[in-house]
């Protein structure tokens, strides 16, 4: 199942359902843009091969649209990265000082220097 990929990450922290939905929504947006880009690239290639002046002129706008789509994908991946980092920080801040190991015995949470 696709949701299981994010159900347990890192130190056994559970990712909040809202965060998971945000990831899935962002990945769907990225996939939609990439699908649009594939169509744009096909049209650009056809116009280029036709060597018809109107088609070549149309490519200018299509290439701009393609570049804007690429910027949007980069921004979405940047937002995803920030969201993931924040969710991991929030998740680790919610942990208590003591942790439970997989064998059921209590352990101490490691405190990082400089924090």
Automatic annotation (TrEMBL):
Keyword annotations: Biological rhythms, Nucleus
Family: Belongs to the EARLY FLOWERING 4 family.
Bilayer-crossing regions: none
Gene Ontology biological-process entries: entrainment of circadian clock; positive regulation of circadian rhythm; rhythmic process
GO cellular component: nucleus
Protein EARLY FLOWERING domain segment(s): 14-95
Protein name per its UniProtKB record: Protein EARLY FLOWERING 4 domain-containing protein
Organism this protein belongs to: Coptis chinensis
Residue ranges of the region described as Disordered: 87-115
Broad class of where this protein is predominantly found: nucleus
Subcellular localization: Nucleus
Keyword Isomerase listed: no
